[in-house]
Amino acid sequence: MAQPSTENQDEFWLFGYGIDSSGTSLLKKQQKLIIIGKQDRRAPGYIDGYVRRFWQASEDHRGTSAHPGRVVTLIDRPHYDCIVPPSTPPPSYRVWGAAYHIPQQHVNEVQEYLDIREVNGYSIQYAPFQPASREERPIEKCMVYIGLPSNPQFLGPQSLDRLAATIWRCKGPSGENRDYLFMLEEALKDLGDGADDEHVQELAKRTRETGMASGENGATLGDGFSIEVAIEKVTSNSKSSLKGTEEVEKP
Fold this sequence. Notes:
Layout: E1 12-16, E2 41-48, E3 50-58, E4 69-76, H1 77-83, E5 94-102, H2 107-117, E6 123-131, E7 139-146, H3 160-169, E8 171-172, E9 175-176, H4 177-190, H5 198-214
Antiparallel strand pairs: 1-5, 2-5, 2-6, 3-4, 6-7, 8-9
Helix pairs in contact: 3-5, 4-5
C-alpha cells in the first residue's frame, strides 16, 4: 500500500467512523487506545461528501469465508449516486465520527500499524474534517481508510431486511456481527445531537426484529453497555480476497 506523505507530521490527523476488530469504538471519549496511546488530541465531528454503509464483507472479523459478515465503509457521493436506484431518498452525505491527532514522533509507527490492519480492501484517502466544536479549527487534510467500490470485499447495495438477516446470524473471530452493529449505534448516540445515522439506526432496528422473530435472546443492548475506545477504523484484516460471492444476498 502506498504510504501517505509525512511532510507535515505535526498535522497528522486520522478519522475514525466505526468499531475495530476487538469490539471497541472509535467514537467514544474514554481514552483507552489500541494504538498504545499514540494520539494526543481527539475531536468529534464529521466529514462531508460521504455516506456510511454496511456494504463491506468481513471474512475474519465478524464473519468467515463461508459466511461473510458485514462491516461499514464509506462511499463518496459520486459513486453512491451511480450505484443506488434514482428513487432512493437522498442521504445527508455527512458522516460523523472522531478525528485523532498523532504527534510527530508516533506518525511512522501509527501509519505502519494501520497499513497492516487495513489490508483487507481498505485504502488511504483524505478528506476535510469539521470538528463539532466551533471553537476548533477545521482540519483540511484528515486521513481515512475507506473500502472503495473497486475493492473485492465491497458488496454494494443490499436490501435492509436481507442485510439484517446476515448480520444477525454471522459471527467471526472478533465476535457476533450483530454486536458490531449495536455497538456502533450506541457510540453514535454518544457523539451528541446531529450525529444520528439513519442507515445504522434502521439496520439495528431490523436486526433486533430479526432476532426477536427467531426467538433468540440478546437482540438488544442495555443502557449500561460500555464501549472502550480504539484508534482503529472498522476493518477485517484478512489478506484473502472475497470468496463465495454467490452467497452474497442482493436485493
